[in-house]
Design goal:
With 138 residues, this protein is α+β, with helices and mostly antiparallel strands. It has a domain of 89 residues: Archaeosine Trna-guanine Transglycosylase, Chain: A, domain 4 (Roll), CATH 2.30.130. It is built from five helices and seven strands; from the N terminus they run βαββββααβαβα. Strands 1, 2, 3, 4, 5, 6 and 7 form a seven-stranded mixed beta sheet that branches. Helix 2 packs antiparallel against helix 3. The radius of gyration is 15 Å and the shape is globular.
């Protein structure tokens, strides 16, 4: 399964540095997947690609313990983010790659009718876009 997902620049940079080993989400798919990474405003580009392992689905308290083990997230951050839900996702990051050249939102919108995801979108349903993105991997 291939996604395009939105990740803030500071977190994507930490992933590239190997410091952030999990992505945390309130909702996600329940299988390993791959995702092209859209970095939102003010960057507004697809900049990378991540291979994710099987998500860990658990209570916010247990997901918070995983987050704290990375030493890059404050104690209350994940608990606040996951407030009001019974289970959240900690998605292990297997590999992270940069694209050869970042792809601006304007280009994607004009050529593939792409709109920036708030969370994530299934890219498998957009075969031309997916082919273009895979051709831009390093």
């Amino acid at each position: 399964m291939n996604l395009v997902m939105s990740i803030a620049k500071k977190y994507f940079d930490l992933m590239l540095e190997g410091k952030k080993k999990y992505e945390f989400r309130r909702k996600f798919v329940n299988t390993p997947c791959n995702a092209f990474i859209y970095v939102p405003y003010p960057v507004c580009e697809i900049q990378g690609y991540i291979e994710f392992d099987n998500p860990i689905v658990d209570t916010p308290k247990r997901i918070n313990k995983i987050a704290l083990s990375q030493c890059i997230i404050e104690d209350s951050d994940i608990l606040e983010y996951m407030s009001g839900i019974e289970q959240g996702y900690a998605i292990p990051i297997k590999t992270v790659k940069r694209l050869r050249k970042p792809i601006p939102l304007n280009y994607l919108h004009n050529n593939y009718a792409f709109t920036a995801p708030q969370n994530y979108i299934l890219a498998d349903k957009k075969s031309e876009l997916l082919s273009y993105l895979f051709n831009n991997l390093l």
